[in-house]
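Hey, I'm writing a tutorial for new members on how sequence and structure tokens pair up, and I'd like a real worked example in the thread rather than a made-up one. If someone can provide the structure for the chain below, I'll link this post from the tutorial.
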Amino acid sequence: GQRCAVNLAGTDLKRAAPVRGDWLVEQGAPGVTDRLDVQLHWPAGSTGLPGPRAQLVLHLGAAAVPARLVALDAAALPPGQHGLAPLQRAQMLPVQMQQAQMQPVRLQQAQMHPVHLQLARLQLAWPVSAGWGDRFILRDGAAHRTLAGGWVVDAFGPARGSRQPQRLAQLAALALADPAAALAALVADAPDGADLAHFARARGLQPAEAAALHQQLGLQLVAGPTAVWGLSQPHWQQWQARVLQAVDDWHGRQPDSLGPNEAALRRQLGAGPAAQRLLHACLVAAVAQGALVRDGLCHRRPGHQPVLAADDAALLCRISPLLLAGGLRPPIVGDLALQLGLVLSVLLAGLVRLADRGLLIQVAPNRFYLPGVVAQLEAEARALAATSPDGAYDAAAYRDRTGIGRNLTVQVIEFLDRSGITRFDGSRHHLRA
């Protein structure tokens, strides 16, 4: 309740142009936002939502910002189950009525006239600084009257899908007052994981506080390209069971195949883009635990061995020594045909059949690798990225490290990109996981 003055000095102040409602924050604080997902408190007897063209003004801190209101759910009674609703109601009472022991009757009478609660989105005319729990007043700018109060549930919600059931469930979890309870509810309703960075930002948690919550709840952390996702242990175990069952089903349907690669498993499980990171994490964990074996790009159960037709088995035995002898630069298909005395078209058809079963990997149209050698190509990429300041490399660096020549280098690194092992940003290649 005290006031202070801060003397701002610096050559950039004129360009920054501080205005009423701005905040002085430390480095690393969440940025500004022009949309707020909030819980509104409509007074008893309120006539309901203003019209879509109503000129509303949000009063948040010292800021007064024109706003447009979009209801996300219907108004509900009674308040008090989530977030700050009980505290907000108590703070609206006179000071002497907050002391329940001194005025129990008057407090009970106040609770008989609860406010209506409603989740809503406020789209603002310009960005403001806001955080979880910040209280505000919403006024009708034309009629000069107060419509509602409320508090911020999420200042950094997604631009789209604010009315989807999944988003409403997220807001219900975020509205819980206790951060641990909020995060537990969030992950319990997210079989594919909750965005932990968004939760920490929405709740204003420092990294150490967020890490302590993850440990307290025993979350399984899964790193994605741009975020870390958290799963409850039951959801993580369900994902692991699904992946192992999918590999078992593959072996049952295709006993002549080494096993599915990650792309095939993704199609089999119907995993969308958001679940790809979980599939990859489950495969890595299963290999580390010994539940799966990775051969090249394929995954198989430890006891599984493909049962090949006699001609394919004989071809694999003949070409394997020749491919191994070539190391990271195995012979092209034409040279293999000459060495084996086979018609090129016949050999190519056999190589493709073996590649379809995962026993060979076609890196380029005229070059096939054994799975173990492809693992070496990936290992070279990882080692090269590990020595790079930005964790990436270009074609020249990979060529120099492997010594396989310029043309084959281009084919190999394009193959690694297609396989999802690396990602090309237009100039350099980054490991995905």
